[in-house]
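Quick sanity check, ABC transporter ATP-binding protein:
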Amino acid sequence: MTSTSAPTAAAPASAIEIRGIRKRYGALEALRGVSFDIRRGEFFALLGPNGAGKSTLISIISGLVHASEGSVSVLGHDTVRDYRAARRRLGVVPQELVFDPFFKVRDMLRIQAGYYGCGKEVWPWIDEMLERLDLSAKANVSMRALSGGMKRRVLIAQALVHKPPVVILDEPTAGVDVELRRTTWAFMSDLHRQGTTVVLTTHYLEEAQELCSRIAILDRGSVAVIEPTQHLLARHPYRFLRIKLVDGAQLPEGLMPLVTGEVNGALELKLETSRNPIGGVFDALRTAGIGIEDVHTREPDLEDIFIELTGHPVGAVAAGAPK
Ligand SMILES: Nc1ncnc2c1ncn2[C@@H]1O[C@H](COP(=O)(O)OP(=O)(O)OP(=O)(O)O)[C@@H](O)[C@H]1O
């Protein structure tokens, strides 16, 4: 992509600047004063349980919904006062599949490019995207004949026709099989390497963990945390120990408070590294004369951290969330 060159002295440092955003739907406050920046060239994750306000924030960034208070700019262009310039720099892959079913894939993309004032010069780019997203064989097929996963990839191509330097993907891989998710992420990673800023919302936390260098977690309309992924993963000083006892033996009473669950007949214990060394667990079992059949340890992942921060798994509606 040519429009994603490195920042110059005059260019704004932020790809997206979000300042004091509030959004009210009647009595419901879907966003309660959200402020943060997404830097140029970042691969950034916006996470949160259902109803946290992610889609509302994305709609405000894309200029489709007006905030009740606050402002957003894309590469220095206010999304309200300078809507066209902001929109020109942004590609948004929406969550919902909305298409004219009768258009053929390639024609639809060419028409979409026209809306941004792009002509034949982007046709090779459209064909390149079709190739990268494994859609070349479907270029002359009408939209209604595509599977859900293919439609989702056309949606990605549609958001990128004008080569925007900033791309937002709102759950682009929801319901898409593993192979297609890989294709999508390989393509997005290439664009990112070439300088595109990529913002992603996803319910697949392992995707965010693997791809994104910084993560914001929205919860009930506010930013619960915004940190580099590695800091987020490292700041939780515990690990998990999975342990299967010989002959279904019972765990000693003293270790029971550490148990967080059972997986395939093995108990999972959450150990704080400073307070519950693994050796202490083994000592307690030895003293009680209990044999161990199998054991393994696991570092906390984003899913664990998400639950700890928000009190519920990703995808669950927050208790007391604005509804
Ligand atoms: N047009 C609307 N009118 C009224 N309420 C709305 C509207 N759009 C969103 N909401 C409410 O605002 C809150 C935030 O919704 P939003 O869709 O932004 O959350 P989300 O984090 O994107 O959730 P999900 O992961 O389910 O997509 C929810 O309580 C939702 O019901």
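Posting the structure with no commentary besides this: The pocket of adenosine-5'-triphosphate is lined by residues 25, 28, 30, 48, 50-56, 322-323 (CB under 6 Å).
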